Task: structure prediction
Amino acid sequence: MSVPLLYESHAHTPLCKHATGTPVEYAETAEARGLKGIIFTCHCPLPDGHSLQFRMAPEQFDDYVALIEDTRTRMAGRVDVRVGLESDFFPGVEPWLERLHARVPLHHVLGSVHMQMAPYRAVYYKGDSFAYQQVYFEHLAQAAESGLFDTLAHPDLVKNEAPSSWDFGRIQPFIERSLDRIAATDVAMELNTSGTQKAVPEMNPSVSMLRLMAARRIPVVIGADAHRADRVGDRFGEALTLLQEAGYSEVCYFLDRKRQTVRIADALQSLVP
Result:
């Protein structure tokens, strides 16, 4: 029998108002799929009611931590349950996030640029989709440089904002400049399997971007971005194979905000089909 090696590193709770199922159900799916553990990374609270309809309120943060700790206790001896966050990045939010991340010991902090959110779009979208893509990759690099995050989540998410205007060859020079800056920080990047369900039906990022990341030796974490229990660990086998195709031999996860590394060949053998 294979030994569990991987964690689901991107999972949500109903506190974000667009996920369903209990954390225990998510953890049970992780166990069933041969994962060693699951790190909950629900959408962080933000100041001034920013996109409150898609995240917990600031006063719910302690409830979130308690919910995950209760799940950890209930699943003890079966699957390792940890608490993390998916925190939005935009210029000016850094002091808020620094204080938030210091409130409790976190295991994995994802940094996300959610360009589809109305408050972000109201500031940065000027009617030109290609220019908006450039802003996105600039902010992705700034997120890495902020020192606030372990991993950058779904790092080509912007391709789903205006799919008809997405041209990888055209945006590639801007992606490469962003990746050069990210590589200098040693921040990891995510391969997010939920991209297959989006407007551009491929993982985030695409294999073309993964190859650029591999060339710069940027570490990669895989996550399903699970908003339902049945999506925990979804398509991890495909994601690992895609990483191999892009030139990777190792995959990562974080505990205590410290990067752990697993050989992809070993990770593939550890999964339950």
In short: The longest strand covers residues 80-88.
